[in-house]
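Limitations
The structure tokens in this dataset are predictions for the assembled complex, not deposited experimental models. Users should treat interface geometry with appropriate caution, especially where small molecules or nucleic acid strands are included. An illustrative entry is reproduced here so readers can see what is and is not provided.
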Amino acid sequence: MADLTTTFLGIKSPNPFWLASAPPTDKEYNVRRAFEAGWGGVVWKTLGSEGPPVVNVNGPRYGAVYGADRRLLGLNNIELITDRPLEVNLEEITRVKADYPDRAMIVSIMVPCEEQAWKDILPRVAETGADGIELNFGCPHGMSERGMGAAVGQVPEYIEMVTRWCKQYYDKPVIVKLTPNITDVRKPAAAAMRGGADAVSLINTINSITSVNLDTMSPEPSIDGKGSHGGYCGPAVKPIALSMVSEIARNPETHGLPISGIGGITTWRDAAEYISLGCGNVQVCTAAMTYGFKIVQEMISGLSDWMDEKGYTSVEQVVGRAVPNVTDWQYLNLNYVAKAKINQDDCIKCGRCYAACEDTSHQAIAMSADRTFSVIDAECVACNLCVDVCPVENCITMEPMQPGQVDPRTGKVVQKDYANWTTHPNNPGAVAAE
Amino acid sequence: MSSPMTPGIAAGRLPQETLRNNFSDLHAPLTAHEAAVAADRCYFCYDAPCVAACPTDIDIPLFIRQISTGTPEAAAKTIFDQNILGGMCARVCPTEDLCEKACVREMAEGKPVEIGRLQRHATDTLMAKQRHPYDRAPETGKKVAVVGAGPAGLACAHRLAMHGHDVTIYDAEAKAGGLNEFGIAAYKSTDDFAAREVDWLLGIGGITIKPGMRLGAELTIESLTHCFDAVFLGVGLGGVNALHSAGEDKDGVRDAVDFIKELRQASDLAALPVGRDVVVIGGGMTAVDAAVQSKLLGAQNVTIAYRRGRAQMSASTYEQDLAASKGVRLIFNAQPVAIHGNGAVREIELEYTADDGTGLKGTGETLRLPADQVFKAIGQTLTTDAGLVLEGRKIAVTGAGRTSLAGVWAGGDCASGGDDLTVTAVAEGRDAAMDIHASLMGSN
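Predicted assembly:
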């Protein structure tokens, strides 16, 4: 079994799986149970300033999007930061950290964009013995209307300013949590870096309305007939988050900035993907909220088995392995030619590939009277849609053509050499080949 | 060439091809696609009812999730951590009465997650890798004797060996495996699986098997306790109950367990004789296994006669349905009174029974069935008490298999409690091993 011990910003945890700042980490009872279940660390649910705590709605806080069999694919919420007194949270954090010194304990904070507010809370957080803080610049609902959360995260200058205050008044690592509700995630990441952030974590939740009740004409989740946009998370947001993570990882300005990956991580494989795109660890929420804390056991065994199989002996060896392979479209190899291939032994003859290709793509699949589906190589552009809609994994595969073979679609010989759009004759701005 | 119609007891009633099909896997292994679809149905329940229903407490939701996420070997480890004979249990467990009965989707839709077949998918995948997945702890220098190489003994031996003890398994038979090897219907353990599983299990190291050693004959409790630091008895139930009916000694009347054993060891099923009219007396799994296999060998008429009602039959509803689907007739509330025939059995005479609340009694009304072969499957008994205190007709145990004699543990069918299932035997063997381990190490 591979050693999953992870050191992120000098903070050691027995595995790279942390619980994200969210309802599962709102109090001592849950966090102790999470540690007993095997989680490597937690980011405690966001603390606000001293004084009367925020209040939450007293109706539904969550809305859901389902796949087949009511599998939860996306969840949104309109819950605010912790609604328990600051003092209670700080006492609990202190106790739990003392009892679990080997686990990472990060405290999420969101206070007004005023230096004094941060100056007040940071020493108190420091006293808990927590390993670091995470600045919540991401929550898209409620707090953002009050000039906090995403309202800060959408203004790089504010991010830089607050981060700098935190580095000034707090000695341990500062992680800046980024909102995806922006145009270019590289800007807030760079701002965090300029402010002295030790790491960024992303993504926070995405502005969303999960559905509309067509009887009451209220968005869901509905509070007395009205709804507000909430923060979307869960498996459905993973592709958006992976892309944002990769942008930060490959951007020369932020390259090397430690990243804690968040967004729909449900299995070991999701985690490995985030790590390969540059994350030093990952944070999980929706999977725990859907399946319970025990879900981490599969993440641990799966990641460990996969690392053993690949010969990796530490998580660190995986970090960023896929980053060099993330590139711009213009650098993709246009001489690479593939064709779809349908394995007739595995085919169950549902015809979904045919419908997809015939109606919406390139008419490259033939259907016989006995429902045999086969690829017409002379039409196939290898778009992958048939693979994506096929219900049987690996029944349809994309087979690369070999150099020297003639592509029956274009009549051209497949070239061995790499060539991209920047040198393509159809590109008006093509760079002349030497 | 004989046929199902050939009178008397005859071999070769069916062509080889038919026999091969009849005795192939009762449930074919899941394909990768089937496994993915089946695993996808698991809800990963909290404190899952299926786990509570498993005698070995396998973490079923976890192993199914591990299959879902493409790590069937991790899934197998989850299974083997609790049940080292998880491969055999995946084949023979009455899942319809255990985990799958408890599955919430059984309640919701009448269709449980196919836990047994998923378990087989995972365990087959790991076992095909050939490398034993556990490492042995450093040797402790302690020696433990395990008597009986059946499920209880093997599970006990493996767990002890894993903890670094030196284990010697004694077994009366020439081959290890116990009922897995000799006593389960062939279509549940195809391709010599029982023997392959034993070989794989022994990969842990530190276990020596000594065949042909029977407790009460070549072995005594005194010599074992003298030579070893601890003794585990998993000797099963080697004796067979008698019918106590007139004519029981006629040719063609035999113990069902012997027939099953012969069938399991047969190299050529076409050479194995079976009656045209077969009657099996009993209501348990052995009765069903003997009846179904008689039918699959080509018997024309096979009947199970059970003295009580369907609800009391210890064979599960699933097994009863399996028997019926293969063409076995089930007669309830009928007990044997006489076996007729001139030298060899020709007919069996049954008497109807009724229970008026004061116990089962014959009604005096009888029926006769043609029979050229009668299999007795009315329960098995201990062959030796080895001088230990008994509870009922089994070795009395308390806690994790402690017998009345210090340093001697027992588990599986020979010990009191439990329900005579492979999976229960595995749990008892495993738990006794942990108790033996604690006791041996505590004495240091």
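Some entries come with short summary sentences. For this one: The radius of gyration of chain B is 22 Å.
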